[in-house]
């Protein structure tokens, strides 16, 4: 592993979010990372209705990234904000889209997919 896994999730990096509803219907979206805030990964939602619905039912999330030729996966829990500090950070990050929700991910596990092992 050459890259620090947190660097792979830096602001502006494309991420794939995977969620699942309580009735086991999966969903995935590609989003841009807003980086780490207070040690947690921040994502803005502008159009992800199914993702938000899934996360409101089941706050577990899986995120995959490829950066610099390396692949990482994180698993964690989500908090969703419709106002406040995290929402404001999301709103300021992109004037092109109107933020509906701030998604704050508390990371529980990190995997290096190239090495096929858990690293955190």
TrEMBL record:
Taxonomic source organism: Candidatus Daviesbacteria bacterium GW2011_GWB1_41_5
Protein name: Pyridoxamine 5'-phosphate oxidase N-terminal domain-containing protein
InterPro entries: Pyridox_Oxase_N, Split_barrel_FMN-bd
UniProt-listed PANTHER family: 5'-PHOSPHATE OXIDASE PUTATIVE DOMAIN-CONTAINING PROTEIN-RELATED (PTHR40660:SF1)
Pfam families to which the protein is assigned, alphabetical: PNPOx_N (PF01243)
Leader sequence residues: none
Annotated Pyridoxamine 5'-phosphate oxidase N-terminal domain residues: 9-112
């Amino acid at each position: 592993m050459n890259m620090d896994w947190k660097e792979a999730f830096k602001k502006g990096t494309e991420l794939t979010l995977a969620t699942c509803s309580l009735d086991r219907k999966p969903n995935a979206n590609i989003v841009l990372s807003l980086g780490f805030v207070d040690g947690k990964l921040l994502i803005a939602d502008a159009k992800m209705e199914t993702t938000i619905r899934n996360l409101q039912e089941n706050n577990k999330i899986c995120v995959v990234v490829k950066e610099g030729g390396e692949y990482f996966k994180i698993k964690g829990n989500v908090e969703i904000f419709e106002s406040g500090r995290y929402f404001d950070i999301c709103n300021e990050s992109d004037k092109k889209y109107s933020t509906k929700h701030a998604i704050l991910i508390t990371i529980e596990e990190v995997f290096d997919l190239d090495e096929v092992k858990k690293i955190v």
